[in-house]
Amino acid sequence: MSLYSEYLAEIKSRKEELGLAPKPIDSAELLAEIIEQIKDQDNAHREESLNFFIYNTLPGTTSAAGTKAKFLKEIILGQVTVAEITPEFAFELLSHMKGGPSIEVLLDLALGEDASVSAPAADVLKTQVFLYDADTARLEAAYKAGNAVAKEILESYAKAEFFTKLPEVSEKIEVVTYVAGVGDISTDLLSPGHQSHSRADRELHGQCMITPEAQQEIVALQKEHPGKKVMLVAEKGTMGVGSSRMSGVNNVALWAGEQASPYVPFINIAPVVAGTNGIAPIFLTTVDVTGGIGLDLKNWVKKVDADGNTVTDANGDPVLEEAYSVATGTVLTIDTKAKKLFSGSEEVADVASAFTPQKQEFMKAGGSYAVTFGKKLQTFAAQALGVDAPVVYAAAKEISHEGQGLTAVEKIFNRNAVGVASDAPLHAGSNVRVKVNIVGSQDTTGPMTCQELEAMAASTISPLVDGAFQSGCHTASVWDSKAKANTPKLMAFMNAFGVITARDPKGVYHSMTDVIHKVLNDITVDDRAIIIGGDSHTRMSKGVAFGADSGTVAIALATGESAMPIPESVKVTFKGKMADHMDFRDIVHATQAQMLKQFEGENVFQGRVIEVHIGTLLADQAFTFTDWTAEMKAKASVCISNDETLIESIELAKSRIQIMIDKGMDNEAQTLAGLIKLADERIAGITSGETPALAPDENAKYYAEVEVDLDTIVEPMIADPDVNNEDVSKRYTHDVIRPVSFYNDRPVDLGFVGSCMVHKGDMQIIAQMFRNLEKQNGSIEFNAPLVVAPPTYNIVDELKAEGDWEILEKYSGFVFDDENPKGEARKSYENILYLERPGCNLCMGNQEKAEPGDTVIATSTRLFQGRVVADSAEKKGESLLGSTPLVVLSTILGRFPTMDEYTAAVEGIDLTRFAPPTEAMTTPASGAVAVKIADPS
User: Fold this and answer.
1) Count of CB atoms within 10 A of residue 145's CB?
2) Is the pLDDT of residue 248 over 80?
3) What is the pTM of this model?
4) Which of 127, 494, 619, 841 shows its CA 20 to 30 Å from the CA of 38?
5) Between residues 928 and 608, the one the model is more confident about
6) pLDDT tens, residue by residue, 396-424
7) Is 70 exceeded by the pLDDT of residue 871?
8) Model confidence over 745-799: pLDDT tens digits?
9) CATH code of the domain occupying 3-164
């Protein structure tokens, strides 16, 4: 059977079984057959082959794109005649192929001697921005050799005509609202984790957004309001909490956006999304990638009494009242010039934050990638011509307050900023390009990152990146047909691209399913680094890390840069003494509860960086705090450590990087060896006193300061989804934090210890508890299932060497076996201990899940509806989050413990210890200096 026949068979089954259109073509071999059928005038499949070639072939650096570009070149040169594809149309098709082979063909034609071909080729090239070093080197060489067309193209690039000649953003954009949910809308609603396997198949994945009924309601609104854009709204909540989810934005754009190109299927851009409390920070970055609009509606406000005091309800929460309606079907007008939102002629909201000069550039260019590449291309052309580039793009926003010190995150941005004109230190609000040191790609979004890299014609990792890792943790639990289809292909692509991969395409080293955040935390060896990762929990305890969509990860891999504003910071410090029976997880939850109480329900963490003065807590343990900041809705987190602790953390990172090297994971570029060298240099700088551990200046300015009182934390603290709250907007948030006594004698159906929130110490705690309980009771029996998934393989190895794994195995009814991995997910559980393969497991909800309606107590991170546990017909599923000792004891008892039971179970166990630093974790005011690196472009 030919590839084309197989494709037709796939098309038929896809239509009959799923109701979908033909899958876009990325295979050169298949497209070659299609081209032969186009050339054959009498071929029965010629007409449909033309349609596949023109409208259904993926652009960029896919192998199909290379074949398509080559055939278009033959048509332009008159070597092949296709009546339906004139040379003019061939040029138009090349103009929509973004880069890679299409740029190579256009350069061949433009730099040739045939003026009838070189002129139109040059005109198309002037519209393109996705050029790489090989492309620009060809242009510069031709220009220096006296080629007039090359000079003409460079002059156009220097003026950035690829941007200036684009249509301006419409002054008035009419929208019709669609309330997608009341309360916070998680990215799981827009792109469910359990459907992660289909994210690279955009049309198929689009079927999982919200519900089929919601999709049809959106379509109905579009028919009812032609010419208006449907705006998805989070009523009384924040839009896009939880993850970056490029797939979520893609789904919204698929149903409510605009087609990016008539010749590329299912790639839509420019969606409009909104929330009463705005858009979650990393989700908003993802919206920018598509040139979309994200609005902070502020349509519900705190009610105040006659004296101006906030009115609260019986629970002490502020009472909200509606400022204006955004009920489904409401027509509103966005005035992009005035930066206001109108209902009819009445102004209802200021939306200036959605229309900064930079964001309007993204909208005009069709997304942030084009702006990033455009700036680099303009800079290159001006340098090649020896001219000053005219000011076309909005200047980097450089804010500097004389006499004001720098926060820790401001220092990191100053150190890594590129292309900055001023020598003065930059403060929050500045918008700059920064060098990215470490990049992480995870496996459920990785296939999309590969697509994005192909679409922007990138073929190798930027030399500016110190290290990058592709994980296999999100699909580690079950080696099923979906994982087998996606994971090897992903690992092969990333390995060839220059990324360190969890799985070796050549099978040299054992596949590693370690949790990506733990690996990134280990390969980050500088507290002044910037890290970009494809997951909201990319929040390292060294440097500052930002969770990002798959596209931003791709651009960081391809360019070694990212553009973003310097965020505001909130300072978190501690006082008092941590009780011996408390786990550090309890301190983390209490921080959120005390912050909300201190600021009368206002979440001052949202959209800002939390600078936590953690002092003497090692990076492994401190990660428990930084990881949870995603649930606090913070943009990122920075740990302020003392010199000795930082050195110890870097030494630990070195040892784990060496383990990776010993396994054979390093690549030809010796990336991992290079990280050890960087680690040694950082330790030397700290030891000498030349570059001590990162600390803010004593006169730095913070948006807010939170002091956590450890003395008041006397019970284990649980984050509760509050599934039965009468106010639906308050369900499934992470803001309800309750002491364990609230749950006295309440049954527990399943316990889970795992995900990125645990470290080696948690595994040791389980072993110590087993020894305690064994000593007290003679044996251990589980009255509820306990699932344990260590975060990394090296932790398992260390536990085996130290003797703790032995007692875990003793009481387990299942132990993972890499030689015979599970082929399907569990649907029911026994009252035993399951020792699962390292990875995300239940926390992801895409493979393993609890039984519907279960009350789950877990160490993981997500409270979203249906994520860990779905509802049953009789009962809502609940995913309550707490510390490792609480989870273990609850499963042994089959219920939540009393305080007496809990303190007896942890007696003598070395829980994660933390004491507030006694020394000031700041530098003198005179330390406010900006140390900037050179512009790599």
Assistant:
1) 9
2) yes
3) 0.85
4) 127
5) 608
6) 788 999 999 999 999 999 999 987 877 89
7) yes
8) 899 999 999 989 999 999 999 999 999 888 888 889 999 999 999 999 999 999 9
9) 1.25.40.310
Q: What is the pLDDT of residue 462?
A: 94
What is the separation of C-alpha 584 from the centre of its chain, rounded to a whole number of angstroms?
Answer: 26
Alpha carbons 384 and 23: distance in angstroms, whole number: 42
Q: Distance between CA atoms of 514 and 818, rounded to whole angstroms? A: 13
Among 288, 180, 254, residue whose Cα is nearest residue 548: 288
Mind giving me the DSSP string for 419-467?
S----SPP-TT-EEEEE--EEEE-TTTHHHHHHHHHHTT--S--TT-SE
Residue 494 has what DSSP assignment?
H
- The CATH fold of domain 746-897: Aconitase; domain 3 (3.30.499)
Mapped onto helix, strand or coil, the DSSP state of residue 315 is coil
Burial label for 643, CB within 10 Å (0-12, 13-18, 19+), is middle
Identify whether the C-beta of residue 392 lies closer than 8 Å to the C-beta of residue 160: yes
Measured between alpha carbons, how far is 727 from 725 in angstroms, rounded to an integer? 5
Per-residue pLDDT band at 244 (split at 50, 70, 90): low
DSSP result, 350-391 = E-GGG--HHHHHHHHHTSHHHHHHHHHHHHHHHHHHT-PPP-
The pLDDT tens digits for 104-141 are 999 999 999 999 999 999 999 999 999 988 999 999 99
Note whether 497 and 468 are within 8 A (CB): no
Cα–Cα distance measured from residue 307 to residue 477, given in angstroms and rounded to the nearest whole number: 57
Closest CA to 230 of 251, 204, 203: 251
List % helix, strand, coil for the chain (3-state, nearest 5).
40, 15, 45
- Overall fold of domain 172-350: Aconitase; domain 4 (3.20.19)
Q: Could you tell me the strand order of the sheet in which 293-296 lies?
A: 293-296, 272-275, 229-235, 172-182, 331-335, 340-343, 346-350
CA 1 – CA 11 distance, rounded (Å): 15
Q: How is residue 161 annotated by DSSP?
A: H
Domain boundaries, the chain: 3-164, 172-350, 746-897
Q: Do the beta carbons of residue 543 and residue 526 sit within 8 Å?
A: yes
Whether 829 and 785 have beta carbons less than 8 Å apart is answered as yes
